[in-house]
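User: For my dataset I need records formatted as: sequence, then structure tokens, nothing else. Please produce one.
Assistant:
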Amino acid sequence: TMSGAPADEFAVKRERITRALEVTLSSGSTTAEGVAEGVAAVRDALVGDEATAEGAAELKAQTAERASTLELVLRTFLESRLGESKRPGASLASVGVTALLDLALALSAAGVADHNACFCLLEDLFDTLVISEADQLWKLVEARAAALSPLLSDTPEKSTRAKLTLIRTCNELLRRLSKSKNTNFCGRILMLLSYVLPLSDRSGVNIKGISATSQLDVDETEDGVQDMEQDSGANGAGGAEAANGGE
């Protein structure tokens, strides 16, 4: 049937890509050459025997369809590896999750996958991890910040989805973290965002000019003002004594 043909075509393509991912990750190569070979293998599996579309509109649609297919297969593959990581003695690195993230990053950088591919994998990962595991995974993200940054500073057409996914992931993490117990982790998340996103990015600008609405109690009575002046004088005297003592 006509409705079954696209599904069968997708199943064949998914099987080819999955096989390429398994072969690449099973090699265990983390060198630049090994990653490049993995990118080439996944690209070949994605394209297959399909002819390149003619015309700008057709080519754009074909590229978008391929990127969408690859992103879906990557997320499905990650899900299967996460299931394996729950076995006794297994870890994210031992089942190839770390290598998969590096491969997804390389695929995005090479233009084979959408810029959002590696970020959606990170979002899926953090959604399944407890805080202690998320803390360890965040170290991996920090180590690859320089490679992630170009994917977020590309043209809006390419980088908007990636930015939104990263911001959504970070906001969800910050919501889960305790501001008193996980202060360091919260700070690391904000520092990474400030590194990979420009200061002028819409997500970090107070566009509406909203002011803080929290109440600040100030004692404006005469006694309160005198106490403030005394405290100020004491601090000034202490600073002068410290300066004289230093001489």
